[in-house]
Amino acid sequence: MGTDLWLVVGLGNPGPSYAGNRHNAGFMVLDVLAERAGGRFKTHRARGAATRAEVLEGRVAGERVVLAKPRTYMNESGGPVRGLRDFYKVPTERLVVVHDELDIPFGALRLKRGGGDNGHNGLRSITRSLGGDKEYLRVRFGVGRPPGRMDPAAFVLKDFAAVERKELPLDVDRAADAVEALLTSGLDAAQNTFHAS
User: Fold this and answer.
1) Segment 122-152, tens digit of pLDDT
2) Containing H/E element for 33?
3) Where are the domains of the chain?
4) Which residues are known catalytic residues?
5) Does the pTM of the predicted model rise above 0.70?
6) Which of 3, 56, 115, 171 has the fewest Cβ atoms within 10 Å of its own Cβ atom?
7) Residue 118 assigned ligand-binding role
8) What is the spatial distance between Cα 5 and Cα 154, in angstroms, rounded to a whole number?
């Protein structure tokens, strides 16, 4: 524990039926980071009860991290995130949330601190659970806008299209690079690197 620890949370929905959905981009990025850390996710237990998250404690790019995937549905992500933040005593400014973003073209990345939830139910739940504190870092993974008049809520619960799946491993890998840059170099430097490309 301590102030040099990072909490990196990937957002998604649990279970195999959701695994390839656009909404699960955060989980996909966390899986790459876990592979790089050389560990496996395990059910987190605090005071004998599960905090409804899969966690991996280790090092990413030399930094001490707790990687976490909430086991709740997306719109209830806040409870596990707050529970982990409190358990590990991680200040909000060292919380990184990786999530899908409709308003960014597929595969593009944007990094920021704070701001609104932009209609994202996972972010809304986290901010509410943190008592309105929005000052956590976000790694926003672009999934693009739905075609035609498709409901955005339905679009994010669909798998990536075949043409997107060809690019997806590279884009997810790049998002994992962005998380590492955020931890090691800070927000400004990571933005300069990943917003330009």
Assistant:
1) 999 999 999 999 999 999 999 999 999 999 9
2) helix 25-37
3) 6-194
4) 23
5) yes
6) 3
7) no
8) 36
> Annotation-wise, does 21 bind a ligand?
no
* Burial track 46-84 (b if 16+ CB lie within 10 A, e otherwise): eeeeebbbbbbebebbebebbbbbbbbbbeebbbbbbbb
What sign has the CA pseudo-torsion 129, 132, 137, 142?
A: positive
CA pair distance 149, 13, nearest whole angstrom:
24
Could you give the strand order of the β-sheet that contains 42-46, starting from the edge strand earlier in sequence?
42-46, 49-60, 63-70, 6-10, 95-101, 137-142, 109-113
SS3 89: coil
22 is written with which tokens?
A: 């656009």
Q: Which superfamily, per CATH, for 6-194?
A: Peptidyl-tRNA hydrolase (3.40.50.1470)
pLDDT of residue 49: 47
Among 121, 134, 115, 14, smallest CA distance to 76 is for: 121
Tell whether residue 13 is among the known ligand binding residues.
no
Instruction: Check residue 160 and report its DSSP letter.
Output: P
